[in-house]
Amino acid sequence: MMETTKLPLYAKLTLVTIGLLAFFYILYIGQDILVPLIFATVIAILLNPVINFLCRKGMNKVLAILLVLIVALVTIGALMYFIGSQISSFTESMPALKEKIAAMFKDLTNWVSHKFNIPKLKIAAWVNKTKGEGMENSSAVIGETIGTLGGVLVLVFLLPVYTFMILFYKPLLLDFIAQLFSGISIK
Length: 187
Fold this sequence. Notes:
This protein is mainly α. It has one domain (31-178). Helices cover 86% and strands 0% of the residues. It contains 7 helices and no strands. It is flat, with a radius of gyration of 28 Å. The chain starts with 8 loop residues before the first helix and ends in a 7-residue tail after the last helix.
């Protein structure tokens, strides 16, 4: 028979804190793998009833998964096309928007100059200085944008593969989870 030792409260709290820190650090380090995996799991859960329906109607499991994934990808692609067309129509109206913003800025400058008795040249110099500081940081923003774009592309290419694998190996995954938690008893 095994003896259990009781730990003092401060030792338990220390272990729980270290465990939580380690858990969140592992999640942070593995986010490039875990985020697509979690998205794929959610998508697989959403697509699973349609695949089960097609399999009950006599369709091969692989063909059902491929068909549903293709339909989902086409639907998402159509949605992205719609959003892209809306963005392009917005960019066509950009010159008029720039003119309105410039007029509003001129009115705001006049109001600030009149209300707070600040010369317009001083306001313009401050705005130009702020613009210059923004341009100095633009290379960092461009680098972050390229990194984010790369992450999105990886997500877009891995998501269908992960979703297919989760749907195809669903019985094995469910059996693994059942065996993993079968020995745990709640007291």
